[in-house]
Design goal:
Blueprint: H1 8-34, H2 39-61, H3 63-73, H4 81-96, H5 103-114, E1 122-132, E2 136-143, E3 148-154, H6 158-166, H7 169-176, H8 185-194, H9 196-200, H10 202-215, E4 222-223, E5 227-231, E6 234-238, E7 243-244, H11 245-251, H12 254-275, E8 277-279, E9 287-290, E10 300-303, E11 309-311, H13 318-328, H14 332-342, H15 353-360, E12 372-373, H16 376-387, H17 392-399, H18 404-423, E13 426-427, H19 429-436, E14 457-458
Parallel strand pairs: 4-10, 5-14
Antiparallel strand pairs: 1-2, 2-3, 3-6, 5-6, 7-9, 8-11, 9-10, 12-13
Amino acid sequence: MSDLPRKAVTRTAKLAALPLGVAGRATLGLGRRLGGRPAEEVALELQQRTADQLFKVLGELKGGAMKFGQALSVFEAALPEELAGPYRTALTRLQEAAPPLPAASVRAALDERLGTDWPSLFREFDERPAAAASIGQVHRAVWRDGTPVAVKVQYPGAGQALLSDLSQLGRLARLIGPLVPGLDMKPLVAELRARVAEELDYALEADAQQAHAREFAGDPDFVVPAVVAQGDQVLVTEWLDGIPLAQVIASGSTEERDRAGQLLTRFLYAGPARTGLLHADPHPGNFRLLPDDGPVSGWRLGVLDFGTVDRLPGGLPLPIGTALRLALGQEAAAVLEMMRQEGFVKPGIQLDPDAVLDYVLPIIEPAAVPEFTFTRSWMRAQAARIADPRSPAYDLGRQLNLPPAYLLIHRVTLSTIGVLCQLEATVGLRAELTAWLPGFSPAAGARVPAQAAPDPAPLPGAAP
């Protein structure tokens, strides 16, 4: 049984069609301009068609191709404004939905993985997917004890699809790279490749989600659905309602945007401090804003999808907070020395400490003030500053290194900043750093006691 294009040659052809399609549309656009159509009108039409093809190909392929698109979606804030519209819409669609599997395919997959009597596990099961994402799709159901649940079913052939995509995504990186100034796609592709095994292992995902559910049970700020049951390529968790973050980005009020941004920032730092785990897939599709009967400031952030996490037993590394504190204190020589110790500057590379500080300070500007408003224009300015060959920051950036141990932390931090800029949220970042980031202040990293969440039940054929 297979509903994904799994053969490498098929998937490679579809990915290769993206740059070829762009070239074809460019040729068509030239013809239309020669035929008298205004250049601006033609350019807009070509951008929209390219964006539509991007969603269609990545969504149908799912697997690593779609996951790459979801990761890229949080960086649309760095796109030049004249390009942002069409791509923003197409990439945002990848955060919440993709073309789903037919109901017959879902039934066959569950028959194969849980046995043909799997319907007895549920009082109700909606065969229409509530969400269709990169590696699996989610169905709404009612567990046999009456608990509303989300049933995540891994796509047949998802493993082969991921492996195929991750060997071919270099083509896609070359296509989209020029659209996002300052973003090197190669580390993103390499990191996705390194995480394939964990992403496909629903037992690891269940463990990570349950650890968060235990820690944040009854929390005033965060809601993590508990794991109800887990089996081979099937994961059952409590159902979570709420406003998707993509909807808040599109039409939320200022109060909703600010609240969502503050909680997203808090989770970035409090999560590792409290659980020893970093949620490593912070695109808007994985978050919900949960309103209650009180004021907006009382709303909580629902967090989904723990398939990719970074294991940080001591929380975020101490050198991050220490270097940030030193930089804000203008201690240029100490910052450079710490960067050398951590491998951000390779042996033999000579850099001016003041130039390094000048490179860093604009990026950490949000931490220097009590509140900072993240905007697309600010993110574009940062991306352009680093990517402009005429800028001193460009030459210095080319001499810096990103140690493997920091790769995922770096991507998650940049992705979170990208979402904050999409929200255009005003956030008290400094307070979160003070409370949760080791090294930023003596009090950082204090734990909050957690209530227990029940252990999940094994599904048929799964180890208890």
